[in-house]
Amino acid sequence: MTYIDVILPLPLKATFTYAVDDVMAHKVKRGCRVLVPLGNKKHYTAIVDRIHDEKPEGYEVKYAFALLEEQPVVLPQQLKLWEWIADYYMCAEGDVYHAAVPAGLKLEFKPKVETHVRLTPAFRSEDNLQHLLDNFDKRAAKQQELLLSYLQLSDFLEGNPHEVSKQDLLALHNTSANVFNALVEKGVLEAYPFVVSRLQDKTQEQTGLKPLNHNQQRALDEIKRCFAERSVCLLYGVTSSGKTEIYTHLIEETIRQGKQVLYLLPEIALTTQITDRLKKVFGSNIGIYHSKFSDPERVEIWNKQLSDEPYLIILGARSSVFLPYQQLGLVIVDEEHESSYKQQDPAPRYHARNTALMLAAMYGAKTLLGTATPSVESWYNATEAGKYGLVVLKERYKEIQLPEILPVDIKELHRKKMMSGHLSLILKEKMVEALGRKEQVILFQNRRGFAPMIECHDCGWVPKCVHCDVSLTYHKHTSQLVCHYCGYTTPVPHACPECGSMELRDRGFGTEKVEDEIKAMFPEARVVRMDLDTTRSKTAYERMIKDFEKGKTDILIGTQMVSKGLDFDHVHLVGILNADTMLNYPDFRAYERAYQLMAQVAGRAGRKGERGLVVLQTGHVDYPIINHVRKNDFETMVSEQLAERQLCRFPPYCRLVYIYIKHRDKQLTDAMTSVMTSLLVKVFGSERVNGPMQPAVARVHSLYIGMIMLKIEANASMAQARKLLLQVQRQLSQDPRYKSIQVYYDVDPV
Ligand code: ADP
Ligand code: ZN
Ligand code: ZN
Fold first, then answer.
1. What angle (nearest 5°) sits at the alpha carbon of residue 339, between those of residues 706 and 368?
2. In ligand 1, which atom is closest to the CA atom of 277?
3. Does domain 214-399 sit in CATH 3.40.50.300?
4. Is 237 in the pocket of ligand 1 (CB under 6 A)?
5. Which of 28, 95, 253, 564 sits at a 20 to 30 Å CA gap from 684?
C-alpha cells in the first residue's frame, strides 16, 4: 500500500497521511497537488511532501480523492524552503504553503478563454477564397467587408494567419454579430475557444546596457572579486550613485550564463520606475510578481517558471521568494534595510531578505544586498562579524554632491511664536524660490505613531475603536473616523458624547492636514498627496509618479512612500516637516530608522544638475543623530548604535523572539502571560526574558494581547531555544484553563 504525507493550507503543525490507490500511486510525485478529504464535508488541495509505505497507526487512513497533475507544481527546493521558514519563524508549514502558493493553485485553475475566429478549412485554399470574394451578393456587402477585415487582421494572405478574436474583428468596423453569424451559417468562418495568456508582453524599445562610469566599474569589479570568495556581498552606495546600473550589469552576466535572477524590492510601489528601466534592457526576459497582481496572473507566472521557458529575471516584492526557480544564480535585495521586507501578519512572519539569503544558499547562488543606508545587522555582518563582503560607493553618478541639509529648530520657533502651522519661514521661502524657478518640491511627513485624531476641546474626550485599544484616525475628506488596526469606521459625532460640547477639534499631524495647509498657502501650485489612503489601487501610485515625472505636479506631499527609490530630475528642495515623531518612537531601532528615512528622503533632492537642499525641521537640533544626517555620517551613526545594542543586548548581538498571547478575556490573557513569563525565566534565566511587556496596542479585534520578549545570544543555538520555547508552550496548553488561548511567535521582529 502506498501512502502520502501532505501539507494542507491550514495552520497545522503536522503533515497528514492519506492512502492512494494503485493508479495514483503510479503517477504521484513529491510536490504534486492532491485533493484530500478532511473532517466530514471539507476537502482541500494539499501538496505531497513524502511518498512511503509505512501504514500510520491508531486511526483509519482515508484515501486521497484525486491527483491534480502529473508534474509537480512545487519543486523540492521550495519544499525545503517552506520547511526552513516554518522551523525558523516558528509557524506551521501549512501557513507557509498558504502564503506561498497563489489561491488559484489551491483550487482548480481556470484559464482565460476568448472566442477566436478563423476561416473554415474549405475556404483556406486561395482559389476557393478568391472565388467567394469575387461572387459576393451585392446585398451582402457587410459580410464581404467583415471577411476582408478578417483577412486584414490575420494577415491571412501572408501565410501563417495570426489569432483573431471575435471581439477585435467586430470592433474593427463596428459590425453587428448578425453579420458574423451569417458568415458562420454559410460555412465561411468558424468560432473556437482560445486560451489566452494573462501575462503582458508589451514589447518595448530596448536600449542595451549603459556603460558604467569609473567608480561604478570599480564597485562592480569589487563585487565580482568578493563573489569569488563569498556568497553574500553588501553594496553600500550613496543615493543616486547608480546602484541600479550596477545591478543591471550583474544581471546581464548572470543570464548570459543561463542562470536566473531574483531581484527583490521592498514594496511594489517602487517597481514602476525600476521596472521600466529594466524592461528597456531585458525586454521579455523579465517577469514581475507581487500581491497586487490578480491571482490568475500569479498562477500563470508560477506555471511559466515551471515550464521549459521560465523568465530569467523575476522582479518582485517579498512573496517572489516563493516562486519556483530552476537555476537560480543571483539574488539582489535592493533597499535591504527596509522593514517592509518583514511580514507582520499573518504567519509566516518571515523576513524576505533573510529568506532570500537562505534561498540563494540552497541553489549555491550569490546574493547582493544593496542600499544607501545599510541596516545595522547587515553592516555588522559585513564588518565586525566578517560574514559578508563589503563594497562601498561614495560618489554620486556625475559626481553631483549630496544635498546640503539645513536643520531648523522648530522648538525655538514655537517659543518665539514664529511658527504657525507646519512650515517654518525658511522652508516657506525656499519653496517660493523653488516654485519660482519651476522646480518641484517634495515634502515628507512621517505619520507613524502620530495619526490625526479629534478631541473634545472642553473635556479632552478622544474617540476610540470599539474593538481595539487605539484612538480612531480622523479622515477629513470622508468625514469618518477609522481604526487603522481593524478597519472599524464611524461618522464623526456632532457633539462630544461625554460632555455634549460642540467643540470637537482635530489634533495631530497627518499628511491630509499638511495638504490643506499647503493648498491654502500656495493656491496656484498643483499639490498631490501620496500615502496609503491615496494609493490603494494598483494604478494610483503609478499615475502619481508619472504625473510628477511629467511635471504635472509642483508639490508632492507624502509619507515613507516618497522616501523610496524614486528618481526625479527636477527636485532640488525636500522638506522634512517634523523629524521628532521618528526620534521619539519607543523602539530600539528608532534612531536607525530615523537616520535611514531622513537620508533616503534627502536622497531625492538634487539627483540631476545642481546640488539639492533639504530643510530638516525638528525640535531636537542638538541630538547627535541630526548631525549625522547633516554630515551624511552613516558610519558614526552605526557605530554608536552598535555600541548601544551591545550594551543593552539587542540585535545583532542577540536574537529576539516576541511571544504573543491573545484572548477575549483580559484576566485570562494576563494570567497566562505571567505564568508563561515565570516558566520561561526558569528555563532561560531572567536576563533572557523581558515580560510581561506592554504591547504597542493592548487590544486588537476585540482580543487582549499579552507579550513577552525573549533574547537569545547570537552565538547560542537558536534551534535549541525554539525547542525549549515550544516545550514551555506545550506544558501550558495542557492546563485546561489555557487551552483556548492563542499563542504565536514573531522571530527577528522589526
Ligand atoms: P541609485 O540606485 O544608487 O540611487 P540610480 O541607479 O537610480 O542610483 O542612478 C541615478 C541616476 O543616474 C539614474 O537616473 C540613472 O539612470 C543615472 N545613471 C547612473 N549611472 C549611470 C550610467 N553609468 N550611465 C547613465 N546613467 C546613469
Ligand atoms: Zn467633551
Ligand atoms: Zn479597531
1. 140
2. 16
3. yes
4. yes
5. 95
